[in-house]
Design brief:
430 residues, alpha/beta, 13 helices
Length: 430
């Protein structure tokens, strides 16, 4: 009989450097992941190999080193900064008699702690069940055989088969409920599209400061902390921008290198907000020495989810942590904004960020002074309703001179709603 050992909050971390660049992980990032999971790191065992061992992932000598470190520091759990196969995980646990969790398991644990909404909890449960489905045999080896004899014949299934069947049924149920959520999101997006409301989605590496920027811009109270995956559930808020008017800003889950595909699939409904955005704000921690690698990882995930063709404005955040750096807009060869340097913590550079977004989203902006006749009161009301009026002066004859600034498309739309042709307007532009 093989029973899994209990786990605790004191961990030995295992990090192996492989010769293949694509398989390498960042030990500093893994330490942050473990801290975000609420676990204390008591020791780190590192090494290097050409390729993983099929039985224990590491060699026998390294396994003895892990065991010695675990006993010396009285650790409760061993955390691998790599993805382990079910058999490797089972073999290490049986050899060391200690709970072993791989990188995917750590990320799932953080997700389970962070999920707040009903949808987020469903997504986490789906990812956990799909991860668990290949590892069920660990806890049920004592129930692999059916008993024979009168009165002992079961329903024709082993306990393991029963669990797998129940697991498949639960996964099917969760996927159906998430599909319903996805359809509801589609309805909301179609409504915004009909109303021609642009959607701006914050994307970026985890802990880049997306939620802090979101709170600063929208004056919201979204949970923000110096932790990996502080945000799990997408949050939408209205944002009024100069020359653009009403927009929707979306805060999304952060990305991470080698994000397990099961998690990407489970959070497909959440990531669809990113896929259908009008503009992506790629938030980057400019103080992070690994920022170039992080940018590459985010771009890889965006390509995986089908969002690579959406216009992107890079927002270099945490400017307050750099010396002698001031907010600015960097432009591309066409003169369009490509990068904005800001600090979400202090608010520096936010006006430049608004200007850059308005420039990228804005098409042709009109700035007019119009004489509005008394019989054109509906048009005046529509201009005020769109927050486009900058100034107003009333003449003695009852006509009104208004100064307005808005998008050309919105200007023409309001004229149609009021039943007024542009050649009927009296312009007083300088």
């Amino acid at each position: 009989m093989f029973e899994r050992p209990d786990t605790g909050e004191r961990a030995v971390l295992v990090h192996i450097d492989f010769s293949a660049e694509s398989e390498r992980e960042d030990v500093g990032e893994f330490k942050e992941l473990v801290r975000s999971a609420g676990v204390e790191t008591v020791a780190i065992v590192s090494g290097s190999r050409h390729q993983p061992s099929s039985r224990y992932f590491v060699g026998s000598g390294k396994l003895e080193e892990i065991e010695q470190s675990m006993q010396t520091h009285e650790a409760d759990v061993i955390l691998f900064n790599h993805s382990l196969s079910p058999s490797q995980q089972r073999n290490i646990e049986a050899r060391l008699n200690c709970r072993v969790i791989d990188r995917t398991g750590v990320i799932l644990d953080i997700f389970a702690q962070r999920a707040r909404t009903h949808e987020g909890k469903l997504q986490v449960e789906l990812a956990q069940l799909e991860y668990m489905s290949t590892r069920l045999i660990r806890g049920w080896t004592h129930l692999e055989r059916q008993k024979g004899g009168i009165g002992l014949r079961g329903p024709g299934e082993t306990q393991l088969e029963t669990d797998r069947r129940l697991l498949r049924a639960r996964i099917k149920s969760i996927k159906a409920r998430l599909e319903k959520v996805r359809k509801q999101r589609d309805q909301g997006r179609r409504a915004r599209t009909r109303a021609e409301i642009p959607t701006i989605s914050l994307v970026g590496y985890t802990n880049a400061g997306k939620s802090t920027l979101f709170n600063r811009v929208t004056e919201s109270g979204v949970y923000a902390a110096d932790q990996l995956f502080a945000t799990l559930d997408p949050t939408l808020r209205r944002l009024d921008l100069p020359d653009i008017g009403r927009t929707i800003l979306v805060d999304t889950v952060g990305f991470i290198r080698h994000l397990p595909h099961k998690l990407v699939d489970a959070f497909r409904a959440t990531l669809e907000e990113t896929c259908n955005a009008t503009l992506l704000l790629h938030v980057i921690d400019c103080h992070d020495p690994n920022r170039l690698d992080n940018i590459e990882q985010v771009e890889t995930v965006l390509e995986e989810i089908g969002a690579a063709d959406i216009p992107v404005l890079k927002v270099y955040n945490k400017l307050d942590l750099l010396e002698e750096k001031s907010p600015r807009i960097d432009r591309d060869e066409d003169g369009m904004p490509a990068r904005v340097w800001v600090s979400a913590q202090t608010g520096e550079g936010l006006e430049l960020l608004y200007d850059a977004i308005s420039e990228l989203l804005g098409e042709e902006v009109v700035h007019h002074r119009l004489m509005i006749q008394p019989q054109q009161g509906k048009l005046r009301a529509l201009f005020y309703g769109s927050a486009a009026v900058l100034d107003e002066k009333i003449s003695e004859d009852g006509s009104v001179c208004i100064e307005l600034r808005m998008q050309r498309a919105d200007f023409e739309k309001l004229l149609r709603e009021a039943g007024v042709n542009e050649d009927q307007l009296v312009f007083q532009d300088d």
